[in-house]
Write a structure and sequence with these properties.
With 202 residues, the chain is an all-alpha fold. It has helices at residues 2-6, 9-25, 31-48, 55-65, 70-96, 104-125, 127-143, 151-155, 160-166, 176-201.
Length: 202
């Protein structure tokens, strides 16, 4: 997946456009935290966009099918991008909050897994609709004020890592623990949704 992605220049343009969008749209107090959320999303989008229909995936499955271990490929498809996202984002978090609160270390991997599973599923079954939804969510989270306590703050799951870093209950935001609970609920819902969709399509 990685080798295929780095050979596609469109991925590099996408990364640059996302970074510029943060600098233009988000407020200055949110900029560092928004890069943390970008790095949760970017490795997933980088590796999984177009992967489901690619020659590389079909070739890997053809080889693996002989050994009857296709589940290993399906596990790697979402776990590798999620692990990469969590690793890159955890390093960038120290630029936004040093040290990050303990809630961040729970929210980050759960959010990375959820985003990876959702994006992989939409790429397989709702390709362009899924990309559109992710694009809209990204723009909404950038435009949101840094300190807010509305339903949108919990609904825009792509922003959970940044929201934990920016959380300040005394300034009127959700408590960081709220995002821990929300990320647990999200990952269970997403895993259930993916299992249901795969069962329906098989």
């Amino acid at each position: 997946m990685w080798k295929r992605a780095v050979n596609m220049q469109s991925r590099l343009w996408l990364a640059g456009l996302a970074a510029v969008s943060i600098l233009i749209i988000s407020s200055p107090e949110k900029t560092a935290a928004e890069f943390v959320s970008l790095f949760v999303l970017l490795p997933v989008v980088f590796m999984l966009t177009g992967w489901s229909d690619s020659r590389e995936r079909k070739g890997v499955l053809n080889i693996i099918n002989r050994g009857g271990k296709t589940n290993m490929v399906r596990f790697a498809e979402w776990s590798v991008p999620a692990a990469g996202a969590a690793a890159v984002s955890s390093v960038s978090a120290f630029a936004a909050a040093a040290p990050p609160p303990w809630q961040f270390w729970i929210v980050l991997p759960l959010t990375a897994v959820s985003i990876s599973l959702i994006y992989l599923t939409t790429e397989q079954y709702l390709k362009f609709a899924g990309r559109t939804v992710f694009g809209i969510l990204w723009l909404v989270q950038l435009a949101e004020p840094a300190h807010t306590k509305n339903l949108l703050g919990l609904g825009v799951f792509t922003n959970y890592p940044a929201a934990v870093l920016l959380a300040c209950p005394t300034a009127g935001t959700y408590h960081p623990d709220s995002f821990v609970l929300a990320s647990f609920i999200l990952v269970f819902l997403v895993a259930g949704m993916r299992a249901f969709v795969r069962r329906q399509s098989s």
